[in-house]
Amino acid sequence: MSQKIFVSAKEVADRAGVSRSAVSRTFTPGASVSAETRRRVLEAAEALGYHVNHLARGLMRNESGLVCLIVSEMDTPYRASLIRAISRHLQNASKIAMLINTDRSDRSVDEALKLAISYRADASIVLSGMPEKSITDLCVKSGQRLVLINRDEERAGALMINLRDQEAARQAFIAFQRAGCRSFAFANSDVGTPSLMAREEGFCAAGREFGVDVIVERFGATRYQSGVVLAQRLLTREVRPDAIFCANDLLACGLMDTARHQFKLAVPDDLCVVGFDDIEQTSWSSYQLTTFAQPVDRIAEEAVLWLSQPMTDSGRFCRMTPDLVWRESVRGG
What we know:
Elements: H1 9-16, H2 20-26, H3 35-48, H4 54-60, E1 66-71, H5 77-92, E2 96-101, H6 107-118, E3 123-126, H7 133-141, E4 145-149, E5 159-163, H8 165-178, E6 184-188, H9 194-209, E7 214-218, H10 224-234, E8 243-246, H11 249-261, E9 272-277, E10 290-293, H12 296-308, E11 316-320, E12 323-325
Parallel strand pairs: 1-2, 1-3, 3-4, 4-5, 5-11, 6-7, 6-8, 8-9, 9-10
Antiparallel strand pairs: 10-12
Helix pairs in contact: 1-2, 1-3, 5-12, 6-7, 8-9, 10-11
């Protein structure tokens, strides 16, 4: 089978009987070209199957239009929704997303990023607190622009997007109090990302503020099965909590299923639960989980808007407030 050869702008120009620059102006928004020339060029392009090489055009301006999305746990519902939103906004801004999976924090991550840099990506968006700081060091050294989401790292010239996690945790504690709960627990993973730890610290701080000791349990990855184990640990304690704030919704779903099916507890009559992220599953009739909604679309919009503006040496912090979504896993919700 012969190799497919891409049609060049010169071939279009020859077929249309115009200059090479006329073809370029035809496919450049706002450029001056007569109606007749435009018609001839478009007819020739359609007949030959010509498409503009935006990558080559961008490299002539020292811009590739490529943006690396550096992601861990990309198969989780929240992360998938964030990837979907960011990639959509990038496409609307005529940019292309290049996905780098960083589930393994070893040399393979650096090699994958170096490969992306070799394609002259303009920027990187780090969607997680998990990748090592050395990864963002590499981005900066390559001259990329940076957007850091839910990390505690500060970078000159970068946009740093964080949630007000501690404030949300305090709100969850007060919601439990108003529901008449007396024994409070926080269910976390062992991952230890800045956002997860901020929720834990905020919930414990609220307990101290109101003179209440908060039980903390941590286990495994931030996934459904870890919620099962956390429920087993918390609900077999001598003093069983009647209010559990989970670091994310996947933990909460695993915890709720275990509480109801293994321990025969009724939610919310025997146990109140709050999650975080507002993934699709939380609205299912099986859960009806009260949770905090991550402003996914706004995060994506702010990130892409920042990358579309002129580069600056000064960075910017953007802090967003997650909304509490009331459902049926808290009494009075």
